[in-house]
Amino acid sequence: MVTNSNGLKEVDAVVLPGVGNFKAGSESIQALRYDIYELINDGIPVLGICLGMQLLFESSEESHGEGLGIIKGKVIRFPLTIKTPHMGWNTLKFIKHNKLVNEIREDDYFYFVHSYFGKPINKEVVVTNTSYGLDFASVVAYRNIWATQFHPEKSGKPGKVVLGNFCKIIKR
User: Fold this and answer.
1) Is there a catalytic annotation at residue 167?
2) Cβ atoms 8, 2 nearer than 8 A
3) What is the pLDDT of residues 19-58, one digit of tens each?
């Protein structure tokens, strides 16, 4: 865990973790904001997981706070007509190929737990969608940034494949 910019020197990759709410995450990341931008500009791979994905966006309906704004768009709440949180196992629908999801099939299940999801302005960043009352972006990719709304670390073998793919990206 990195709490100041000294911890970011010489890193091979950055993982923005996925537990908490947008306001707390936004406050925690502010001290490292410009260091993260610099790493991204230097081509260092970044993986956002759940809240980590949401922090890549500009803002959230969940609470006040400023996201990193790397992916243009907003984090929005599921409509009140949909039971939240979306918690449990669900699948991915491929929109386009991306190396983060190599060897993943549409019948593989991943673990989700969230009430909010990122809605990117540029649909070109969407790699997969997931259906839960509506379709939402479940994997996004932009430049050297990848993010999942699900928790690969809690998703068994398919999640291990996703994390392994990210490790392969780092080694390049």
Assistant:
1) no
2) yes
3) 889 999 999 999 999 999 999 999 999 999 999 999 999 9
**5-171 belongs to which CATH class?**
alpha beta
Q: What is the pLDDT of residues 103-118, one digit of tens each?
A: 999 999 999 999 999 9
Measure Cα distances from 120 to 43, 70, 129 in Å: 21, 10, 12
* Rounded Cα gap, residues 149 and 51, in angstroms: 8
The H or E element that residue 75 is part of is: strand 73-77
Which of 131, 101, 96, 104 is CA-nearest to residue 117?
Answer: 131
Q: Given 58, 66, 151, 167, which residue is catalytic? A: 151
Q: Cα–Cα distances in Å, from 100 out to 19, 22, 120, 160?
A: 21, 24, 18, 11
pTM across the whole model: 0.94
Q: Which of 50, 62, 86, 114 is catalytic?
A: 50
The answer to whether residue 50 is catalytic is yes
Whether 66 is catalytic is: no
Nearest-angstrom CA–CA distance, 153 and 151: 5
* pLDDT tens for each residue of 131-168: 999 999 999 999 999 999 999 999 999 999 999 999 99
